[in-house]
Amino acid sequence: SITGARRAIQKLTRVRVVDNSALGNTPYHRPPKCIHVYNKTGVGKVGDKILLAIKGEKKKALIVGHKMPGPTMTPRFDSNNVVLIEDNGNPIGTRIKTPIPYTLRRREGEFSKVLAIARNFV
Amino acid sequence: RVSSDGKPPKFQPPPKPVIIDRKTQKEERRFLSPEFIPPRGRTDPLKYYIERKDMIQRRKVFNIPEFYVGHVLAVTTADPYANDKSKRFVGICIQRGGKGLGATFVLRNVIEDQGVEICYELYSPRIQAIEVLKLEKRLDDNLMYLRDALPEYSTFDVNMKPVPRMDHEEIPVNKLQVRMKPKPWSKRWERPKYNIKGIKFELPEHKMKAAQKWSQPWLEFDMLREYDTSKIEEKIRKELSEELEK
């Protein structure tokens, strides 16, 4: 990849879709990019919702891990990971193989379905 | 010798002299954790003294084993959001930073093709146990280049059993030369500023020579940057041994 400095996820960051949905895994000549972050600041951290542009479509997604170092004792991943989501919060895929931070459990009410399909926790 | 009951006395071989040189060997290698040494500056040494007292208090309650960069550790932390309220992470220590109570170490592992790094605080009360699984020093003090190396060099089995320690005196140095992914890397590791010996550079000769342009050979002779820690270390070692014996 071309980017050097590690920031959290903002507009035009290329992300990696981590679940096993068809949209996320079929190859396309452009990588999925973030177009909007649903946040007061335009910077998305773990647990924030963003709008992705995948295969010419707009889809909402949940950030599961980023390259930027966060608070101590939280994991830092080597790639910006994202899980595709519907507007009501239901995940589109059925399984998440990559590890997910335990801090997402804090918001069990919103993300209970995403946490249910996750396999590994870090 | 006087024979007992008329029978010849049983032959008793003389006791073998057992030479135990523990004292000399113990004095040669004593490990002082790097976060005890105060950084160079003009702050009042009283501040570091008080911090050291707190660090010793914590060490009395919780055992922090001796480890260097390159060891494989398993850390169990307390977490309200985990099953059984505690979680365990296994990884190789790539960096030890910070001084005093804020000392940290970063563990790296590759789980399901995803590289994960966690920065732990040594003296955090959330840490419940630190186990050293593999004792192994590497050629460098900072293994940050493992992020740009092939993932096989950072993968460690989560259920790895602790490797039994052979000698009580020496820690083996692993002279592994790591192979890197193709460039670009997160930092230009071939530059002499990082002084890395643990990478097998497969770059062409002219690039290695061009990297030497950034070398600053005068830095090691700079007298204003000198920081001799031997006397400070002796004092701190005495303090530590006195306090821990109490």
**pLDDT average of chain B, as an integer?**
87
Q: How much of the polypeptide of chain A forms β-strand, as a percent range?
A: 15-25%
Query: What is the first-to-last residue Cα distance of chain B?
Result: 52 Å
Q: Which value, in Å, is the CA radius of gyration of chain A? A: 13 Å
Would you state the CATH class of the domain at 45-174 in chain B?
Answer: Mainly Beta
In total, the number of domains of chain A comes to 1
Largest sheet of chain A: 5 strands, mixed
Give the beta-strand count of chain A: 6
Pfam families (chain B): Ribosomal_L19
GO cellular component, one term (chain B): mitochondrial large ribosomal subunit
Keywords (chain B): Mitochondrion, Ribonucleoprotein, Ribosomal protein, Transit peptide
Subcellular location (chain B): Mitochondrion
List the helices and strands and how they pair.
The complex is a heterodimer of chains A (122) and B (246).
Chain A: E1 16-17, H1 22-25, E2 33-37, E3 49-54, E4 57-65, E5 75-77, E6 81-85, H2 108-117
Parallel strand pairs in A: 1-6
Antiparallel strand pairs in A: 2-3, 3-4, 4-6
Chain B: H1 22-28, H2 45-61, E1 72-78, E2 86-97, E3 104-111, E4 114-121, E5 127-134, E6 137-138, E7 173-174, H3 205-211, H4 230-245
Parallel strand pairs in B: 6-7
Antiparallel strand pairs in B: 1-2, 1-5, 2-3, 3-4
Q: Which structural traits does this protein have?
A:
heterodimer; A: 122 residues; alpha+beta; Ribosomal Protein L14; 6 strands; 11% helix; globular; B: SH3 type barrels; five-stranded antiparallel β-sheet; two-stranded parallel ribbon; 4 helices; 7 strands
Question: Care to describe what's here?
Answer:
The complex is a heterodimer of chains A (122) and B (246). Chain A has a single domain, classed as Ribosomal Protein L14 (Beta Barrel). In chain A, 11% of the residues lie in helices and 25% in strands. Chain A has helices spanning 22-25, 108-117; strands at 16-17, 33-37, 49-54, 57-65, 75-77, 81-85. The longest helix of chain A is centred in the last third of the chain and has 10 residues, at 108-117. Chain A starts with 15 loop residues before the first strand and ends in a 5-residue tail after the last helix. Chain B has 246 residues and is α+β, with helices and mostly antiparallel strands. Chain B has a domain at 45-174: SH3 type barrels (Roll), CATH 2.30.30.790. In chain B, strand 2 (86-97) and strand 3 form a beta hairpin. The longest helix of chain B has 17 residues, at 45-61. The radius of gyration of chain B is 24 Å and the shape is globular. Classes of the chains: A alpha+beta (122), B alpha+beta (246). Strand 5 of chain A pairs antiparallel with strand 4 (114-121) of chain B.
